[in-house]
Specification:
This protein is an alpha+beta fold. Helix content is 28%, strand content 26%. A hairpin with a 2-residue loop joins strand 4 and strand 5. Helix 2 packs parallel to helix 7.
Length: 492
């Protein structure tokens, strides 16, 4: 009888030629190895999660012709199966000069149990991705945040539920017990095992190499946007430690990830940079250091800007920013709530936005440095975001040099989480605006949302995105969504 994985395999990509495989086994499996066309690779233990061991294997696949790589996992001469009963998996490696087909997805779950119960076929778009992969394989899947939804933590972790019923003063003073810490880690372990073992998603994670970055729901809703006394209390620190452990093992795939910008002996942040064919991929960690007044600290900014200046010198640039940099303006709603006694309880979602007044300076810094890079580099610049449970397209135009240089903002959200209802959307429209934004005193740098072809300006359906360079040298963005619309947009 074959051994079974608790979770995985999960494919990753860390360079043009380095592919990684992460999987989780129970303690009975020792010294597993991965077999493929490239030979036999012994997996290395990178951590423990609950009753399971997390393993990492590296496959070096030289550039060459396009090919499918079939792989399997063995332990003590026996095949190892995944939760679906599969014992062999495969992924596609594009030819050296082949334009890779890239997918982007975010918001893989539900913020409310009632939403899940009311959603017909929650993993339908993962099945749609599988069909597209069968027709024309994806070379890479970018996952831009909320890979799991930890919202149920407040009702399912007994010690946390009891803590949350105390006064604010009691909460801040409380020291987490070992029982609470154990329950927190168990919660995140069970969360990943449940969500990532869903057959439709598990099939894609084992078939398409991915690069992931977390957002708030991978920790708790609104992480980093709470008042300082709550954000820094011991219970929140324990909660973050548990979430970070599982994130760093399963989404980042361990400290030896070759793409990380930060020295992992410090583990201050998980931002990363990778070159894949003609794409530069910069992934921003906007949660590890986030506070209500700061998104990334000084040293983090230094790492990001160094990567832009020294590594991103040619080709197209994709930037993962989980929260959209270009989106509707929430300043009216933010100002209104600032003047009420409910400000702390209601504004964590507003403070999450890049356009919150506390983050406007960092947002402008990011935009201007990306424009500087775009002006030096031949190639397109595209930001990929999720978070808002809608699809959309924004553009930043820079006309300061006499000609126009542009950065596009692609929003895709969510692949599982439903869009706002019509009534909720009307409420959002009532307290936000969609006006042209002028980003400098010359009024030559502007930002606004634009309409994709084949849909409304805002795609109020579940969706994911495909990116593929066409024969016209344009980068075609296609939103694969529920409903009859087929939104697309060619980036020049």
């Amino acid at each position: 009888m074959a051994n079974k994985l608790l979770l995985g395999p999960i494919l990753g990509l860390e360079s043009n030629t380095l592919y990684t495989i992460i999987f989780v086994t129970d303690s009975k499996i020792t010294s597993p190895q991965v077999n493929s066309l490239t030979g036999t690779t012994l997996a290395v233990k990178i951590g423990e999660m609950g009753a399971g061991t997390v393993w990492r294997a590296e496959l070096n696949i030289p550039l060459g012709n396009a090919r499918d790589i079939t792989y399997s996992i063995e332990s003590n001469g026996q095949s190892v199966n995944d939760a679906r009963g599969e014992s062999k998996w495969s992924f596609y490696v594009p030819a050296e000069h082949e334009p890779p087909k890239i997918g982007y997805a975010s918001c893989n779950g539900f913020s409310d149990y009632k939403l899940m119960a009311a959603t017909d076929n929650p993993y339908r778009l993962w099945d749609e991705m599988a069909e597209q992969h069968q027709e024309a394989p994806f070379s890479l899947l970018l996952m831009g945040g909320d890979q799991v939804y930890a919202d149920s933590i407040w009702s399912t972790v007994p010690t946390l539920k009891a803590w949350n019923e105390g006064s604010r003063k009691q909460k801040i003073k409380y020291k987490p017990s070992k029982r609470m810490i154990d329950q927190l880690e168990r919660f995140y372990v069970d969360l990943y095992l449940d969500r990532w073992n869903k057959p439709a998603m598990a099939k894609m994670l084992s078939s398409i190499p991915s690069i992931m970055m977390w957002d708030d729901h991978d920790i708790i809703d609104g992480w980093g946007s709470f008042p300082a006394d709550i954000q820094t209390c011991d219970v929140y620190k324990a909660l973050f430690t548990s979430a970070k452990k599982l994130f760093s093992l399963l989404q980042i795939r361990g400290d030896s990830n070759k793409t990380l910008l930060c020295n992992q002996t410090q583990k201050a942040h998980f931002s990363s940079f990778l070159k894949f064919r003609h794409f530069n991929i910069l992934t921003l960690d906007n949660r590890s250091e986030r506070s209500i007044t700061e998104v990334m600290c000084h040293d983090h900014w230094k790492d990001v800007l160094t990567a832009l200046d020294t590594q991103c010198t040619d080709g197209d640039l994709l930037i993962l920013s989980a929260v959209p940099v270009v989106y509707r303006d929430f300043s009216f709603a933010e100002s209104a709530l600032d003047a009420t006694p409910w400000e702390e309880e209601l504004t964590d979602d507003l403070k999450d936005h890049w356009r919150a007044k506390e983050h406007e300076g960092e947002r402008l810094k990011l935009i201007m440095r990306l424009l500087d890079n775009a002006n030096r580099r031949e190639g397109k610049t595209v930001m990929l975001s999720g978070d808002v449970h809608l699809g959309g397209l924004g553009i930043i135009r820079d006309e300061r040099g006499g000609s126009t240089n542009s950065i596009h903002q692609v929003i895709s959200s969510g692949i599982v989480h439903p869009a706002p209802t019509y009534i909720q959307w009307l409420g959002i429209l009532a307290v936000t605006n969609d006006e042209m934004e002028y980003l400098d005193e010359t009024r030559l740098v502007t930002a606004n949302m634009i309409k994709p072809h084949g849909s409304n300006k805002y795609i109020r359906n579940r969706n994911f995105v495909t990116l593929l360079e066409g024969s016209d040298s344009k980068l075609w963005i296609n939103w694969i969504c529920e409903g009859k619309d087929k939104p697309s947009y060619p980036l020049q």
